[in-house]
Design a protein that fits this description.
Strand content: 15-25%
Number of strands: 4
Number of domains: 1
Helix content: 25-40%
Oligomer: single chain
Shape: elongated
Radius of gyration: 18 Å
């Protein structure tokens, strides 16, 4: 992150800050953490979060999802992608057709087959070199009545 020293919007100096960043919404819950980033001193709104920090944040969320009792398609896709697992490779590992995996992932709200979930969770645990690099907080997503699906 040190390569950024000036704001690309207004060319003012950047300062190091820690900011609460929202993660992804999974079934009415989202994960948030305080992440180090650069913020423009002028207040123009420029803020910069480096890729390595974002990747560690995504890994933290995926690790939290590993402990979930039920994993739906959206959670499954997030976990797979956050660790760079392509659908074709995972389908081969699961010994299923890629089309079958794709169809299951597209049904975002429905639970994934438990055998697939367990194999993905195992693969993620094998990839982890840093357990929970950020202190995540799971918060309920408040929705207006118009946003709630019935």
């Amino acid at each position: 992150m040190d390569k950024f020293t000036r704001c690309v919007q207004c060319d003012q100096p950047l300062v190091d800050v820690v900011k609460e960043i929202d993660g992804w919404d999974f079934g009415g819950w989202k994960y948030v953490a305080d992440l180090p980033m650069k913020r423009c001193e002028s207040g123009c709104g420029g803020g910069y979060l480096d890729g390595a920090t974002l990747m560690r944040f995504e890994h933290s969320i995926a690790l939290a999802l590993v402990d979930a009792e039920s994993v739906n398609g959206a959670m499954f896709v997030f976990m797979r992608k956050s660790f760079g697992m392509g659908r074709a490779l995972l389908a081969e590992t699961l010994e299923v057709e890629e089309a079958a995996l794709e169809a299951a992932e597209r049904r975002k709200a429905e639970p994934m087959p438990s055998a697939w979930v367990e194999q993905l969770k195992h693969a993620i645990r094998e990839c982890v070199t840093e357990r929970n690099p950020f202190a995540l907080r799971r918060v309920e997503v408040s929705r207006s009545p118009a946003e709630v699906r019935t």
